[in-house]
Design a protein that fits this description.
153 residues, 1 helix
């Protein structure tokens, strides 16, 4: 039984790269706002997308973002995304996940959004995204629009 399980695990590990579409890293910046306040934001993200046939994909992403004002800290995001390949160079997607507190007295949030990704050449890509943050404990919700540049592997 042990040999069968080891063989099964080994075959899954070997076969997994054949299913994978791409890993990616990016840097992005944009605008973050709540009712009555607008600030700049910047961050980085790393993700991995898997093809679901020739026209769809799913993926996971981790990110670190900082609102560009005093008394804020890096907020970490854990996001899933799903979308369509509108063309060989274009992806449209929706995403959702969880973001940690961006400041000491802020609240963590569940987020949802949408984005567009365009590939330039083979490895370079650009992205534009919107994200809405559903904040806990009665704090006002917030929003962000970002643009980024990244590399695919």
């Amino acid at each position: 039984m042990r040999k069968v399980l080891l063989s099964l695990v080994a075959s899954m590990v070997i076969a997994t790269p054949a299913l994978a579409n791409e890993a990616r890293i990016e840097a992005h910046g944009g605008v973050y706002w709540t009712p009555g306040a607008t600030k700049g934001t910047t961050g980085v993200a790393a993700g991995y997308d898997v093809d679901l046939g020739s026209s769809a994909f799913v993926g996971a992403e981790v990110s670190a973002d900082k609102i560009l004002t005093s008394n804020t800290r890096v907020a970490f995001g854990f996001t899933g995304r799903a979308g369509i390949k509108a063309s060989p160079a274009d992806k449209l997607y929706v995403d959702g996940g969880y973001t940690t507190k961006p400041c000491r007295y802020c609240e963590d949030a569940v987020h949802a959004g949408a984005g567009y990704e365009h590939t330039f050449g083979q490895k370079l890509y650009g992205t534009v995204a919107y994200r809405h943050f559903f904040t806990n404990n009665g704090a006002p919700d917030s929003n962000a629009v970002t643009a980024g540049v990244g590399l695919k592997f």
